Amino acid sequence: MDTVLNIKAFLLVAQTGSLTAAARQLGVVPSVISKRIDRLEDQMHVRLLQRSTRRVSLTPEGEIRLARLRAAVGQLDDIFLESGLSSQEIEGHLRIKSPTTIAIVSLGDVLTSFQLANPKISVELVMLDRSVNPVEEGFDIAIGALPTSYPGVIDDPLCAYPRVLCAAPSYLARCGEPNHPRDLVQHDCLTFATTGLSWGFESRRGQINVEIKARLSANDSQLLLRAALAGMGIARLARHIAQPALSSGQLVPVLADYPVPEFWVKALVPRNRLDRPAVRSFVDALKAHFGQSLGRPHD
Known about the structure:
By secondary structure, this protein is an alpha/beta fold. It is built from ten helices and 14 strands.
């Protein structure tokens, strides 16, 4: 178990960025943490941390091994945890990734309800507006809507994520309304950064892809919504984000005859985490919650 303690010391220093902070959390003096990491580096025959009087940082070798060590310790903890569980309780720690907008708009309620129902589960929520490989980056669950898959990772669909092209009436009055997706090259477009500058549309003859000009590219849907409301350009937004403004007439649909292909919100779960009770239970909670909150709205 000394090796496990050494690895946990390294993981805590990597998380806190400080020998002192790690020692404080473990209730030991910094020299103990330093010795544990020295032993781990000796065992692995590699330098994991770059240490100076002012700061501690991961070496390139430490960066490479961080996710695998975190996953290994998590699996070992699960083995001991599950052996002591009763059939009625769920314990453990969940490290979850979510896009910022989904986390802020939709995830707070499900996280709160889940932890109230399972008081022995702790959660670390990391908000990242990019697709991540949960195996490589040490997540138990990665929530996302981009059509990206990874080896060794199960994609568990949660709900449809319909999108809509829209603009403020003031922008259309000033710049005109496009009649075909190719007309967008003459317009100011507001785009979600991680989806790029190629916009796809469905048509009777198949999908149409257009390279647009981005007046604003951002990784936050609420910011894009505000820009659209201000008449800055044509935005491609999640329908549940745009719907209040569409219902009030502050925004109007654009190119309604050429629908934007639907994304799906999904939970990406490493295959080796699927049997964890905490992971299974939280994915079930996500399915119940997202199926209600992000399902296809009525027009």
